[in-house]
Amino acid sequence: VQGGFPAFRGREPFGGRTGGQRQRGAEPESFGSLAPENLATRGRLVAAAPGLDDYLRQFSAPGLRLMVTTPEGAPLATVDRLAVPTDPNPDRGLLARLYRRILDRPGERRRVELSVPIQDHDRQRTIGVLHVAQSADRWLTLRDDAVTRLLNFTLITSILAVLAILAFAIRLAFRLARLRRASESALTREGLVTDFPETEAPDELGDVARSFSTLLARLNDYTGYLRTLAGKLAHEIRTPLTIVRSSLENLEAEALPEHARPYVARAREGSERLNAILVAMGAASRVEEAIRSAERSRFDLVPLLDSAVESYRMAFPQREFRTELPRGPVVIEGAPDLIVQMLDKLVDNAVDFSPHGSVITVRLLELPEEAVLEVDNPGPTLPPGLRERMFESLWQSRTGSDSRPHFGLGLYIVRLIAEFHGGRAEADNLPHDSGARFRVRLARGRREDAT
Asked: Which residues contact 437 (CB under 8 A, 6 or more apart)?
């Protein structure tokens, strides 16, 4: 309701009371009169409609204050819930609290204020002002929710990416480990293993595996050629050597001048040495053929080794031979001739690397599943890190000069015969590095020939 109103000058009219209540019966006090000269207009009287408070309460919300004032600023109606917390979930999660601590300044409280004029129906005159104040907690909550969802999505995506990278790295490491194991075990006693893993893979690692497989196949062909080269050369040289030897025999039967006989003798020595070379070159091939055609039988190792050592004492008088054999029989299944040939190679190797007068010990140990044959000889120790290579074909560690031909096939033959009998050949140093010990393990049960 709007309109002009008169203002009283002086004291309160109509016997009105100022301050506390006057006592009953007191003398009345005049504050003015209704005379026109005592009346003056001060302004417009503005009163709020009765339903304004109820109308504002419809928009009431936590963290919100609504106030309607006159254009001059006098309040008409107010709904104030600005101090009420707007966060429906004050106990937020750890990440949300962490994000808010990072993004907000500690102790700072923000709010948004807005004033909008209220005009009459004709929009010609301003009849009031609507003041809106809202705390920023609600907007911070919305921001926190959005930031939390964004950062949680980023965090989860990062974790998934890290797990994917980790899984890829583990798989790549596993594949590389397979390649490493395959490359380390590619060289076996039977030859090169050309089957390489990961050759079917379409990626770069598959290309590397295929390159290694091709390289191993070529090396295997070359190694096979080298292994058969000695036998091929021995076969090709044997015929011309036989012709030379027969011609020298015929020449020796003729009457030769005295000065020509030394030359014939030298030619004879050279032919004999060349024949020894041919025999050594063809030894491995002959052993492989003998293994393929050998017939197995059960026999006692003790009398076989005792008889062989007796023959070594006569063949090598510069060495002393000692035997350590069980008293009872040690029966295995195999080829006795191959066992003797294997022992010949071990003893020949011991004689070559032991000084004159040394004691070579031949020992036989009986175990439940196998029989162990050992040959000990004093002398130089085995080269470090090369104990497995000693039993490979065409490998030797001789450094001195020797009149006899050596091609590194003796211990290779020992290994072939040991594997034929279901065992293996080993080498080790004697205690206190006083020499070398060569050990051959022979299975006592029946083993099928895998060669």
From this structure: 374, 375, 376, 427, 428, 429, 430
Torsion angle defined by CA atoms of residues 16, 17, 22 and 26, in that order, rounded to the nearest 10 degrees = -40
How many residues does this entry show for the chain? 451
Other Cβ atoms within 10 Å of 183 Cβ, number: 15
Distance CA 269, CA 276 (A): 11
Single out the residue of 36, 75, 74 nearest to residue 56, CA to CA.
75
Domain locations in the chain as residue ranges: 4-14+42-137, 204-281, 296-443
Q: How far, in Å, CA of 149 to CA of 342, rounded?
A: 79
Contact 96, 144 (CB under 8 A): yes
Which of 415, 429, 427, 318 is closest to 379 using CA atoms?
Answer: 429
Q: Would you tell me how many other CB atoms lie within 10 Å of the CB of residue 236? A: 11
Q: Could you tell me the pTM of the whole model? A: 0.48
**3-class SS of residue 442:** strand
Q: Is 171 left (phi over 0), alpha (psi -120 to 50) or beta?
A: alpha
CA distances from 419 to 368, 415, 425 (A): 19, 6, 8
In this structure, whether the domain defined by 296-443 belongs to CATH 3.30.540.10 is answered with: no
The Cα–Cα gap between 374 and 346 comes to 9
Q: Give the SS3 label for residue 111.
A: strand
Q: Which amino acid is it at 23?
A: Q
Backbone phi and psi for residue 80, each to the nearest 5 degrees, phi listed first = -120, 110
- Residue 249 belongs to what H/E stretch? helix 204-253
User: What does each of the 451 residues of the chain score in pLDDT, given as a tens digit?
Assistant: 344 334 433 444 434 444 444 556 666 665 555 666 655 555 555 677 778 888 888 888 888 889 999 888 888 889 888 777 665 555 556 666 676 666 666 555 567 888 999 888 888 888 889 999 887 766 767 777 787 788 889 989 999 999 999 999 999 999 888 888 888 877 766 667 777 788 888 888 888 888 888 888 888 888 777 777 767 777 777 788 888 888 888 887 787 788 888 888 888 888 887 777 777 666 666 777 777 777 888 999 999 999 999 999 888 989 999 999 998 899 999 888 889 988 988 998 888 888 888 899 999 998 888 999 999 988 888 877 666 667 776 556 555 445 554 556 778 888 888 888 888 888 888 888 888 889 999 988 654 443 3
